[in-house]
User: Fold this.
Amino acid sequence: MTMGTVIVLGYRKGIDDALRRRGLDTFHVVEKYKEALHGRAFRRVADLEDAQEVLRAVIGADVPDVVGVATGHEQGVFTSALLRTHLALPGDRDYGRALRFRDKFLQKAALPGEVARADCVYVTPEASYTALVSDLGTPFVVKPANGFGAARTTAVHSAQQFARIMDDARNRSDVACVAESFVHGQEIHIDGVRWGGQVLWSSVAQYHEPPMKWNEGSILASQILSPEQNPELVPKAQRLSEEVLAALDAPNCVFHLEAFRDGEKLVFSECATRISGAHLPEIVELTHGVNLYDAVVSLALGEDPSATLTPKDPERFFAYIYLRRFEGAELAQADFEKRFPFHEINYPHDGTARTGAYGRVGHAIVSAPTNAELRELITEIVMFNERGRD
Assistant:
């Protein structure tokens, strides 16, 4: 058994649990303190993406017997590559490649012409709204070039709205933001493991609403799709992921790739070389029996992750829902439990719960034997959360 310390950028309980199961020590570098780090070795930094600051924190801590670097956060992808180089550790050390999986413009520009995707340009506050409409159509989408979690991602419908959005970007760099043509359709995502130049295993899921809509008050939810119940979509999505990862020369990684269903066509959105956020890894394991957190640890140690990929035939399909609070909808966890069957639910009702990613104050995990039944259940729970009544 490998012994030593793994440097972890950011905190993800699933990764921490996987490391503990192996008996590995950890040194966390985080932006925010979490109770789970009490009594543990860690350093705080202002920005996980500031590679110089993270490297100073690690060198200054004199971490003993380091055997790997892992991250479950988008901000830690480039910084992980730098740490691996400095410490001569396994895993991706290619800075340019890491940036292809961080920067939306560089990523789309590197894809071959046959891969359908949104048109994408860097945009600054001085950009002409009229010219952008001419090039991208209306609405178009503005987002951080290296963003994550759909933060500050907005569909722009007018010159006035564009001016308000870009006013926040003044005095930033010329490569801070991108504008993209708007892609219609349902959004799916493919999550899996790549090793030795090929995808070893992947799972396809569908968002209830595109993640960018959480900025407008929507609830984030996603369900695992059945290959048997979606015989055209799932293989097509898996082929797209293989094509994109090969074209971008993806490293050995756990990946998260998003795309839109535009009629019969799949339009690529973006791809990350890190494990998905939210509760996606949890519903993947519940559905398929594959623990993607274990795969993250295997890759951080330079091991072939095949041993972690022993999928089972699904008996039920799982989904997560990020529950929110809405004005006029006074709900407690018991209100949900009276009406719906849950595998897991957490919904603090005392009003003190911190609002987390995607506006959530709690979460639910649900399941059903078919995707159609699961979709109906998600819709009912989302409507109840929003309205506070059946």
User: Anything to note?
Assistant: The chain has three domains: 5-89, 119-181, 186-387. Residues 371-387 form the longest helix (17 residues). The chain is about 30% helix and 25% strand. The mean pLDDT is 94.
